[in-house]
């Protein structure tokens, strides 16, 4: 058993199993593979539980980042960012029959374009039931980080079309440039609906460090166009957030803070306390 304030983790993602009365948390922890932790109260965690270890000859040998796990058509699908020396970083899909794995390869390789540096793919099911992956085209390649979407086949194994640009990081009023003054970061998209509105939570850097903001689709559809809230949700050196409904039915926000120094921890906050009047649907 390990307490929340003892557990170093980045990019926390929580899957709730109401029948078992458990929270399952995944994240980035610097290993070649992914672990999970389970809890009944979000404070005390059992683990690590190995849920994915790469098979012999698997293409990625480093940067195992930001796993997400989604229940889709009765199975559990993990989307995770991976890289190798001779390959661009990309989002690979894995599948399992249990949220605790073992997760196995789904498809032949990353769903993101092979010649793009990409990360943080998340699953979005549109209003017609079609699956998409929303992901970040990295600032390392384009300077002004892009938020993109690519349609997937029903098995989630492969893309069925070309990526669509949704917006660039610099379009958000709160996002500030890094490094050379032209580099804007896109990180960690998470989509949800509220009051019929389609919103995206994502991260970049603000005036006080790593930050978490909200963007809104004017059309209510993934294609947008997208507008951006003037101020971030959180701007004190923390981000890569997502929402989940806790075992009492309350919507919770989780993100990691601070953003470095081996001190990263998962934080859990009632979403209503941060954003009055913005209740997710579903």
From TrEMBL:
Pathway membership: Glycan metabolism; L-arabinan degradation
Any GO BP annotation: carbohydrate metabolic process
Database matches in InterPro entries: GH43_arabinanases (IPR050727), Glyco_hydro_43 (IPR006710), Glyco_hydro_beta-prop_sf (IPR023296)
CDD domains assigned to the protein according to its UniProt record, in alphabetical order: GH43_Bt1873-like (cd08981)
Molecular function as annotated in GO: hydrolase activity, hydrolyzing O-glycosyl compounds
Site (described: Important for catalytic activity, responsible for pKa modulation of the active site Glu and correct orientation of both the proton donor and substrate): 120
Keyword terms, alphabetized: Glycosidase, Hydrolase
Cited SUPFAM superfamilies: Arabinanase/levansucrase/invertase (SSF75005)
Pfam families given in the database record: Glyco_hydro_43
Family of this protein: Belongs to the glycosyl hydrolase 43 family.
Entry-linked PANTHER family: ARABINAN ENDO-1,5-ALPHA-L-ARABINOSIDASE, ARABINAN ENDO-1,5-ALPHA-L-ARABINOSIDASE A-RELATED
Protein name as catalogued: Glycoside hydrolase
